[in-house]
Amino acid sequence: MSDKPLSANEGIKTRSNYLRGTIAEGLADLSTGALCEDDQQLIKFHGSYQQDDRDLRPDRRKHRLEKAYSFMLRIRVPGGVATSEQWLQTDRLADTYANGTIKLTTRQAFQLHGIIKTNLKRTIKEINDCAMDTIAACGDVNRNVMCNPNPYLSSVHADVLQAAKDISAHLTPATRAYHEIWLDGEKVESTEEEQEPIYGKTYLPRKFKITIAVPPSNDVDIFANCLSFIAIVENGKLVGYNVAVGGGMGSTHGNEATYPRIADVIGFCTKEQVVDVAEKVVLVQRDFGDRTDRKHSRFKYTVDDRGADWILAKLNEYLGYDLGPVRPYKFDDNGDRFGWVEDETGDSHYTLFVEGGRVLDTEGYPMRTGLREIAKIHDGDFRLTANQNLMIAKVSPAKRSQIEALLEKYGMAKSHEQSALRLSTIACVALPTCALALAEAERFLPTIVTQLEEKLEEVGLRHDSITMRMTGCPNGCGRPFISEIGFVGFGPDRYNVYLGGGHAGDRLSKLFRKDVPSKDIKPLLDPILERYAKERLEGEHFGDFVIRAGYVAATIQGPDFHKNIKPEALALQS
Ligand code: SRM
Ligand code: SF4
Fold first, then answer.
1. Is 428 a catalytic residue?
2. Per DSSP, what are the bridge partners of residue 362?
3. Is the CB of residue 250 below 6 angstroms from any atom belonging to ligand 1?
4. 344 and 329: one domain?
5. Domain shared by 189 and 330, yes or no
6. Which end of the chain is more exposed for a tag (fewer CB within 10 A), N or C?
7. 457 CA distance to ligand 1 middle (Å)
8. Residue 163 belongs to a domain
9. CA 142, 144, 150, 156: dihedral to nearest 10 degrees?
């Protein structure tokens, strides 16, 4: 046991009476658009963040006004699968209470932004009315469980989706606080203390993330998650999962004790054991994670501090049986497959490119309206991808021509006829809503892509997928440290540029240049793209090429992430 004091959040959780705090009172206080500080932490467990519009800050300050407070709501979508009705309701809520857009997140969830405090309760209530919820979408608990939105093997997809839903349900907090505060559920009056059987009173040391992948696609980026299951399919049937632990992206500029980490694959479990394994890994982190320093309390640090072998031994002890040996698997890439695909049942699936995951209407491209019209007639489902795109899934042969006509009418039919680079991008939200953003991401990455496309056209790389991701800060919400080109916000209009991540999301990238003004990104990358086009080996991915060509050294896993950086990477840029 550490003798360091517990972090402040541990006290907030302990005092909160199972996540109630004074949220209900704070919502009723009309003198401010904000909640008190402790409740701002607690409300995360209910799926919401207090934010303010950062574009408006200077003007509000000038006029001595309170910040333009509003709330972001994250709607859990286990496995990323939503019905047409749920799509329609989310779309309606985006207009009624939020800023008229839907953000498809990198964890297959919906986000609504800009909800004012007085509308928060009715928005959450209406989300629950259509059989979705927001509990545990944020906070020190297990988050939205992801799973591969596989259009090819529908029976395996059905199995892994069920597993994602089962894990999600099993790890949902048991507290009645959510129902009491948001859904006018009955108050727990009993003198017996409420129980939180898996988490206990102080929940987890930090957020916890789980995903399921079906090789050869790693489109859910298993190596960036605390716990992942890699489906092992034999003769077209799911037999079980390899278990991977200790992935994560978050780091802090200037603090080398923080770093992104790729998960270790430690064993195999049967499909019947998957929920039990998920629970026991969570318990290991609950019991051994660091509760003194929130910058060191993610599961990846528990894995690094104690070693993957120790974690496996402890997990086997908690399970009461041993995980089996890791089975062979191979990932080809971590991107999405766009356009129409037909599966073995005859149903079709259309994956739509949604730049930055932002569903909205713009002049000339009424995507949100088009998707609404599709949802009105679509009797399959909508699958959110972890690359922030959208699959209109399970389109029956009878409906396909109608949906094709709507895609055409609303300009979406050719969404995938972009450069392969653009189709391989992710951008986190960043400004103006994210309180932690140091630079733009979602609003700026499209511009960088356009700039680089000139060179791609010239050197014949238009159809070559290079994963490229931008985040407004090193927290890594767009998983930039496992892309082949990563931009990480360093300050206003300045980015750290990372190169050399694995094309399948299975290798960390390395710092190539620190603190680059955005105007210098194109001149920095154009010559490398040109050389790649000329000198690449047959089938060689960009991330592998930049290491072979000596632009960056291959990454060292774990705490040594910040070592072995070439001196020119740190030289002052213009
Ligand atoms: Fe994230 C915090 C947005 C996926 C690592 N993330 C935030 C907050 C809530 C900012 C805050 O704490 O005030 C951002 C809200 C922005 C906004 O205005 O909406 C935010 N994260 C997002 C989303 C919406 C990015 C997106 O554009 O899609 C993603 C929502 C996922 C979801 O549906 O649950 C999102 N965040 C991720 C991922 C990717 C993933 O999980 O696969 C990561 C990296 C993986 C990981 O967890 O290590 C990630 N977010 C973080 C961190 C760093 C955690 C750490 O280990 O240090 C923070 C900051 C924190 O927790 O202190 C953070
Ligand atoms: Fe905000 Fe940073 Fe996450 Fe982007 S990476 S959404 S800027 S916390």
1. yes
2. 365
3. yes
4. no
5. yes
6. N
7. 34
8. yes
9. 50
